[in-house]
Structure formats: structure tokens, C-alpha cells
Amino acid sequence: MGTMEAPILTVNNLNKQFGSGCDQCSNPADRRLDKNYCPACGTVYSCQNITFDLHPGEVLGIVGESGSGKSTLMRCLYFDQEVTSGEAYLGPYKEGRSNLFRESSQQKRYIRNHLMGKVYQNPVLGLRMNFSSIGNIAEKMIAAGNRNVAAMEARGSELLERVHIPVYRMKEAPKNFSGGMQQRVQIAKALSNHPPILLLDEVTTGLDLSVQANVLDLIKHLQRELSISILLVSHDLGVIRMLANRTMVMLDGRVVEQGLTDQILEDPHHAYTQQLVHSLL
Ligand code: ADP
Ligand code: MG
């Protein structure tokens, strides 16, 4: 991972608000908010001027308490939700020169299907629970234009094997699976079109600790094998510590600190980060 290498993803001043704002909160310079919320008009500023780079082969951790805007950021990047304003550039897309948020919905679909994979905290959002597991994977491959059934079956079973779903269970629906297995099917689906970027939103939250460790270990191995770039969101600094090269700390919709994970753990600057680090010890 060379720091001289161009970023694979650049995000500039991403903003997402719910509500249209009022004269008390419209000006970002002197906004008076209660956390991320304008008490005068009820507008929620979920993401405020989020700016960062993701480098090839890097795992960037995004940590912050519940409500700090992590999932909103991920939803905006995967076009699940529209940004209020901001820019994002992908190295492998139009040579990194086109703001993704300005693209047509058809182009956004292309980007989602070919250049990104996403794993949701809630598997219901990422999988059809009643389809077969291999069918769930095929769905993403079909969305990317694949038509060769035999090739998709071969790729699907290879992926499921990689995430340690036994071959004889591939035709089974995710609703029959444990939480850890459902997340592994989501990971296989997300990887199906060889995307350079993976978005992981609280993938292990709510799983038993031993299952959580297995899934994190799987992600670590896949990341090394595929040298894929990952945005890893968690409210748990312990999860971030296991996987992230660099870390970004969010609070009330803002990035309050970012840097090498080791440095943040050793010498946290922001009071909120200090509190997070101390609670790890
Ligand atoms: P996190 O993932 O860090 O827990 P979220 O991104 O889910 O945080 O939420 C950030 C903030 O945005 C929260 O205050 C949440 O209530 C608010 N929010 C998220 N979605 C909506 C929505 N559709 N309408 C209004 N507020 C929302
Ligand atoms: Mg969330």
C-alpha cells in the first residue's frame, strides 16, 4: 500500500440533511445544533462536510456512537440515498474525474454493480431471505450483465466456499441460516463482481462474540487475498482495531479525528476519541 498511489475513492464535503433547515441552522459556520439536530426547525444534519480518501488495498475504519452518521454516509456512497451536496470520485470510473453523485441513475447502477459491494448490518436489507443463497449471488451477477448460468453457478459456489458455506447448503435460503452465515452470504454476494471497493456497515454487530471473531477473521483473510479496499463501519473500536489501517472518528455527523489506527489508539486527540480508547482498556 503506497501512500504515493492515487486514492481509489475520494469524498469531498459530503452533506446529508433531513429537513430543509431554517435561519438558525442553514449557515454551516454558525449553526446551533443539539448534537446533529436543529431544535428550531427539526432538521437533522446527519453528515456534515465529510471528506476523506480511501487508498488501494487499504481498510479505512469509521467509528462513532449510534446516530453519528456512519450508516447515512454508507447509504449515500452506495446510492441507497441521495446526498444533499458533495462529491465522490472513484479511481476506476472515468479516470476518477466524474462526480459520482452527478451521474444518471443508470450510471449509478453500473457503479453499484461493478465497482462496489455492500454488506448491511441487517441481512434483510442485503439478501432475499427466501431465495437460495447461490440465487442471491447470481442476482448481483445478473444485474452486472452476466447471462451464462453455468459460469454464474461456478462463481457462486466458489464464493460460498470461500466464505465457508458448505457446498450442500448452497441451494438453501438464508432464512434458514444463522446470523453469522447470513453475513457470510452477504459478503459472498458483495464480492461476486470483483469490485475494487467493499462497504461494510456493522457487519458483526449483534452476533455472538465467537461468531463475530470468525467473520472478522474471514474479512481480514479476504482483504489480504484480494487486496480489495474496504470502508469498515462500526460503533466498536475493538472491531476497527482488528482490521483498519486508518481510522476516521465521527461524532454528530462530523469527522472529529482521522489518522493511522495505531496512532489514534496510542494518542487520541479529540475528547470523544479519548473516551472511546479508554473504554477499550
Ligand atoms: P449511525 O449509523 O452512526 O448510527 P445513522 O447514519 O443511522 O447513524 O443516523 C444519523 C442520524 O441521521 C441520526 O440522528 C438519525 O436519526 C438520522 N436519520 C437517519 N435517517 C433518517 C431519516 N430518514 N429521516 C430523519 N433522520 C434520519
Ligand atoms: Mg448505523
UniProtKB/TrEMBL annotation:
Keyword Nucleotide-binding found: yes
SUPFAM superfamilies according to UniProt: P-loop containing nucleoside triphosphate hydrolases (SSF52540)
Pfam families documented for this protein: ABC_tran
UniProt cross-references to InterPro entries, sorted A to Z: AAA+_ATPase, ABC_transporter-like_ATP-bd, ABC_transporter-like_CS, P-loop_NTPase, PhnK
Keywords attached to this entry: ATP-binding, Nucleotide-binding
Gene Ontology molecular function terms on file: ATP binding
Domain (ABC transporter): residue spans on this chain: 9-277
PROSITE patterns in UniProt: ABC_TRANSPORTER_1 (PS00211), ABC_TRANSPORTER_2 (PS50893)
CDD domains recorded: ABC_NikE_OppD_transporters
Domain of life (superkingdom): Bacteria
Name of the protein in question: ATP-binding cassette domain-containing protein
Native organism: Paenibacillus gyeongsangnamensis
Source lineage: Bacteria, Bacillati, Bacillota, Bacilli, Bacillales
